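Agenda item 2: ZDP complex prediction
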Amino acid sequence: MEFSKYHGLGNDFILVDNRHQPQPVLSAEDAVRWCDRHFGIGADGVIFALPGQAGTDYTMRIYNSDGSEPEMCGNGIRCLAKFLETLETADGKAPQAPHTYRIHTLAGLISPTLQPDGQVTVDMGPPYLLAQEIPTTLAAADEKVVAVPLTVAGQTWPVTCVSMGNPHCITFVDDVAAIPVPGGFADALEAIGPQFEHHEVFPQRINTEFIQVVRPDYLKMRVWERGAGITLACGTGACASLVAGVLNGVCDRAATVKLPGGPLHIEWSAADNRVYMTGPAELAFRGDRA
Ligand code: ZDP
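Presented output:
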């Protein structure tokens, strides 16, 4: 079976042309094997380009590297837009930038736009802020969760929760290179990440972002992703983090979010309440897997 390997700032995905049928051609178990970095191709997830539905051009489905299925994927949908451009070009229908795709996802309609400079801007839709929308039991169902104390690893972290279709929990730290944990560890994202992900207050588990506000328009971020662990970048996480920064009064509505794999530009529009993300997506290689 043919596949293409793309990445958005080092957050890497296997893309599969699945336009001929509405069900993914791989099972969740296959996806786990394909994502394995030693026994498989290696990736943070597998993304399928499926036929459109509900008036859209295409449908996106994604498996995390552990086989779970998230609702949305910000870096992944930039990769998908580039992949579709290549597929359509091969069919003699090359799109002319700027070109916007209407993509159906489990989080609703999401629209990536191919830019003339090769970057991709994604209309990520509005953020969801109520506890029941995250979902989390950290506050009453119809309340926001802003700087609410959460105990993880014996330490209290003020967390802000934002859904970009998928759930995120954001905490602000002085230095993302040294996330403070008790016990003298200088940096223990690997140790505390899973404890956030599986905390009982998050019934659908959670993606966790640690944010250092360098300036109101420049944030540094590290992430522990639900179902994928430490990754070099997370698009939905960068969007959720900027929204959390605005809710906490520590950043502007437009900022650069610097991830380990590179920068994304994020804006939470005051005019339409939607979040816009701009960043790169690149083909790494194509292959054939038996
Ligand atoms: O919500 C989740 O389970 C995430 N692991 C999905 C992947 C998010 C992603 N890293 C992003 O860029 O938004 C692809």
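Discussion summary: Residues 11, 64, 70, 73-76, 166, 207, 225-228, 231, 234-236 surround ZDP (CB under 6 Å).
Owner for follow-up: CH.
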